[in-house]
Automatic annotation (TrEMBL):
This is NagC family transcriptional regulator. Residues 1-57 form the 4Fe-4S Mo/W bis-MGD-type domain. SMART domains: Molybdop_Fe4S4 (SM00926). The keyword 4Fe-4S applies. It holds the Pfam family Molybdopterin. Keywords: 4Fe-4S, Iron, Iron-sulfur, Metal-binding, Oxidoreductase. Gene3D superfamilies: 3.40.50.740, ADC-like domains, Dimethylsulfoxide Reductase, domain 2. It comes from Sphingobium indicum. GO terms for molecular function: 4 iron, 4 sulfur cluster binding; metal ion binding; oxidoreductase activity.
Length: 550
């Protein structure tokens, strides 16, 4: 019997678990009472871990074109075929799909390989549901930094919850909201749709028309502007306002227009505005969904309100986006998305020079790539000749799943034995499920924690990072991909966040640059960024945040 402290990993919260393992693949799982994310709480999502205990349906040997193969042959075939595609069709013919459930070390190796050595930035990542918020945070703050932490909930005067699904998808978060109300007297206002359900107990509920939330919050900002509720000192010192911003905001966001769009009486809207404007410490919680215009508008409205009213950079006052993807934050930190390079860097000339030099990149992608619908269209049009899939095949509902047969080469690490493995021209390599993974995860509030495997790797399965490391080595990049254990990858990721970073980015993990292998094994949860923006300075050239133009 062994007691293992690990992570649930089934959503973006990042809850700790305490597992007591016995003989074979059996374990008793409970919430870790000392983990900062959940303090012993655990929701029904953790039940998914028990479904991973049996080995039914698992892929336990490498497969090449539907036939079992040894690891040496499988890696050789993957490297040879991928090299041939790049030589014949160019780096832009290669794309990567990462369905989620991976650790930061996995994402780091995948991102380094495809962007630094294959030379493509076409990446479909699991954190796409944060697309609106991630882009908005970069535009407003200069960096994709979530400024809130869970402890803010207990220090807020008011909690503004956008949507019942936000609480429904994150029950532990829901419990913490209830605790804040009961123990601290925080007032909870729920903005929801009439058909969202009644699971959330709130001090006040505002039922609005679907898609009208951004207009409601833009109107709130205009109300604060017109009634002297902006933080003028903070704005003058720390905020850049686009020309004609207020004139643009005024169009269509008067009380009557907002009420009509939201399906509310003007008096209801005004009462809501007065309550929120009077709360000095406010946390706004929501789950950004999709990368469409609606998600971007809502994210921008939330950030604009918190910035212009100074409700940021202090305890109990912040916007808080909680994403569904487990370790979506870790993927964003290493840049495993189509629009980022690495370690919160963009594709600027300076960033390209820094990352290229640090990696010793053989063929660095020099511009953002495709993802989402654009990538699916490229696959359908035949422009994608090789698909790298790390962590499993796309879900049945994902558009790329039905298009895999049109791609000449598919290289996949996956825990599951699925029909496509035998029917398509594919190199399928057995990888772990969550309960067999070892590495780190970053929760939605920037808390880095250790995932420790509960069970040994079954059959011939290998970690995802190990598989892509061996493919890179077989393609001739052994010096850049020298990893033998996840601690080495973590150290390199840490050093990259600190490289040529003289305060220009908040993501700087330099305190762990010299971490030893034993210290990595015993790593306890820690949060980077301290209290972001507490001095009113932001990672922009002039140190000021920006209101996002409508």
């Amino acid at each position: 019997m062994a007691v293992i402290r690990s992570l649930c990993g089934q959503c973006g919260v990042g809850c700790g678990i305490r597992a007591v393992t016995g003989e074979g693949r059996e374990a008793l799982i409970e919430g870790d009472p000392v983990h900062p994310a959940n303090g012993g709480l655990l929701c029904t999502r953790s039940e998914a871990l028990k479904d991973m205990f049996p080995l039914d349906g698992r892929l336990l040997r490498p497969m090449v074109d539907g036939r079992a193969a040894g690891w040496d042959r499988a890696i050789d075939q993957a490297a040879r075929r991928l090299s041939a595609v790049i030589a014949r069709h160019g780096p832009g013919s290669v794309a990567m799909h990462v369905p989620g459930g991976l650790l930061t070390e996995d994402y780091y190796v995948a991102n380094k390989l495809i962007k630094g050595f294959v030379g493509s930035a076409h990446v479909e990542a699991p954190c796409s549901d944060a697309g609106g918020m991630a882009a908005a945070q970069r535009a407003a703050f200069g960096e994709d930094v979530t400024p809130a932490v869970y402890e803010d909930l207990a220090q807020a005067d008011m909690l503004l919850l956008l949507g019942v699904p936000t609480a429904r998808r994150h029950p532990v978060l829901h419990e913490r909201l209830a605790e804040a109300r009961a123990e601290q007297g925080a007032r909870l206002i729920l903005v929801a749709h009439a058909d969202d359900g009644q699971e959330v107990e709130a001090d006040e509920r505002l039922n609005v028309a679907p898609g009208s939330e951004a207009m409601l919050l833009n109107g709130l900002l205009l109300h604060c502007h017109d009634h002297g509720a902006l933080d003028r000192k903070f704005m003058e010192r720390s905020l850049s306002v686009p020309a004609d911003f207020w004139a643009g905001l005024r169009r269509g966001h008067d009380l009557w227009s907002v009420a009509r769009a939201c399906g509310l009486a003007p008096g209801e809207v005004r009462a809501f505005y007065d309550q929120v404007a009077a709360a000095p410490r406010l946390v706004t919680l929501f789950s950004p969904q999709g990368q469409g215009e609606e998600a971007r508008r809502l994210s921008a409205a939330i950030l604009n309100f918190h910035l212009a009213t100074g409700r940021i950079g202090k305890a109990g006052a912040a916007p808080f986006a909680v994403t569904d993807a487990g370790n979506g934050m870790g993927a964003r930190e290493v840049g495993c998305r189509a629009g980022e390079l690495a370690a919160h860097r963009d594709f600027s000339v300076q960033a390209l020079a820094e990352v290229g030099r640090f990696w010793g990149a053989a063929r660095l992608a020099d511009r953002p790539g495709m993802s989402g619908a654009a990538l699916a269209r490229a696959v359908e049009a035949g422009h994608v000749k090789a698909l790298l899939m790390m962590g499993g095949l796309p879900s049945a509902s994902h558009p790329i799943r039905s298009l895999m047969g049109q791609v000449p080469l598919v290289i996949a690490t996956t825990p599951w034995s699925e029909p496509e493995i035998e029917s398509l021209r594919m190199v399928a390599l057995p990888s772990p499920l969550w309960v067999e993974k070892d590495g780190t995860l970053t929760g939605a509030d920037r808390l880095i924690s250790r995932q420790r495997r509960l069970f040994p790797l079954p059959g011939e399965a290998k970690p995802d990072w190990w598989i892509f490391t061996r493919i890179a080595q077989a393609m001739g990049w052994r010096e850049a991909f020298h990893y033998e254990r996840p601690a080495e990858i973590y150290r390199e990721h840490v050093r990259l966040t600190a490289y040529r970073n003289e305060g220009g980015r908040l993501l700087n993990l330099k305190r762990h640059a010299p971490i030893s292998n034993p210290a990595y094994d015993e790593l306890t949860p820690w949060r980077w960024g301290e209290v972001p923006f507490d001095e009113g300075r932001f990672p922009t050239p002039d140190g000021k945040a920006r209101l996002i133009a409508l």
